[in-house]
Amino acid sequence: MSHIHLPDGILPVWLWVSGWVIAILVGTILLKFFKKEDLNRRLPLLGMMSAAMVLGAAVEIVPIAYHINLTVISGILLGPSLIFIATLVVNLILALFGHGGITVIGLNTLILSMEGILGYLFFRLLWKTLKRLTPATFIATFFALSLSTFSMIGVVGLGIPHYEELIHQEKEKGIFEFKLLGEKGDEHGKAKEKGEINLKRFVAIVLPLGFLGWILEGIITTLIMKYIHRLRPDLLRLEKEAV
Amino acid sequence: MIQLSYLDYLAIEGKSFLHRLSPRWKVIGMLLVLSGIVILRNLSELLLLYGILLSLFFVCRLPLRIFSLTLYPLIFAILFIFISGFQVHFILLIFLKVLCGATGVVLLLATTPYPSIFRLLGRVLPSFFVTALFLTYRSIFILLNVLEETQHALYLRGGFQWRHPWRSLTNISNAFGHLIIKGIEASEKMYESMTLRGFKNRIHYRGE
Prior knowledge:
The complex is a heterodimer. By secondary structure, chain A is mainly α. Chain A has 2 domains: 13-158 and 214-236, Arp2/3 complex 21 kDa subunit ARPC3 (Orthogonal Bundle), CATH 1.10.1760.20; 159-197, no CATH class. Chain A is built from 9 helices and 2 strands. In chain A, helix 3 (71-78) crosses helix 5 (105-130). The two termini of chain A are 36 Å apart. Chain B folds into 2 domains: 4-112, no CATH class; 125-196. Chain B contains 10 helices and no strands. Chain B has helices spanning 4-13, 17-20, 23-39, 43-59, 67-71, 74-80, 88-111, 114-124, 127-156, 165-196. In chain B, helix 1 (4-13) crosses helix 7 (88-111), helix 3 (23-39) packs antiparallel against helix 7 and helix 8 (114-124) runs antiparallel to helix 9 (127-156).
């Protein structure tokens, strides 16, 4: 749900260009902290987790337009630096299948990697304090997803003036084209008053569906973590912190 | 995503003029389509662009089976129309932009083998990133094989049934857990074999 499923050409240029610039900057800075050997050694794991995220995104729960992201579990397994690169790769591949626009890859990477990084941080913090896998994973996933959904709503909200422009240009060209400039301005004002672009309506649709998604993904992530903990606990690197 | 291997097959086995065209020109064409999607705000112009892409799709004799891939992103566009208060023009604008973008990328992927696309990307992107992209693409096929095997086990344990949500969720989660563990084991083996073959931070493509 926290993924911006917008096509190209809907968000204003300044917004998606900023998304790309920030994503490239963050990616470059994160890579500087990595040793080349470590990076090469972990590349296949990064590829495999990215592939798992791509497959997760392909499993669509149609009635609520939700798909699992697996970003939190990938964040826990890959760590905060590699999850950023992994989400960039995932978004590029998903965009090549029309799942979100190509221009919004930068913004989607920032939002999805935030989900992975916050999930990783919340999980480590909760594990240290609770020492119990189920609540630590569920709460970490729930809050990471809810925060990234709010950031997605924020990004969509930033584009409101642009959407209004897209709607009103047609009206100005069409049925209102015979009016005087002043009248056109009044009409534009009235249209705005009617609240044609309504972020509240969008939020009212996204949040309840998102809430279902956060719970669903929280449960699935928790069950996956329990499965991995049962079979390959070494992958979670919890031993040194466990009581 | 299951159609990925079929897209690969089409890209390699296809004989149309678009299949024979240099990948560089196809990527440039895709960038032009993208620019069109970003710049165009007129329904008739977008319809024209979509018409051109559709005719290319049929001229290249791409099977209708993959046409559904171009319609898939509409599911998400439907969610976004609520923001506009059901303005017909805005909805059509969004739908056409979605269809143009999706048809463009499906055309590119169904007529260009992915190593050719990655080789082109390697000229502009850091080698580390392109290697990650290639390994992800390869891993999707590995995981799809694991998923196919897991599916049988999943069905034997009841699969996914709306009547038994908890059991279904547990089954799905175990399948994904199995997928991740198998995937990580495969990635460890992959790294060993890559190192044995002299891998040093970048993959070289045929012709380089």
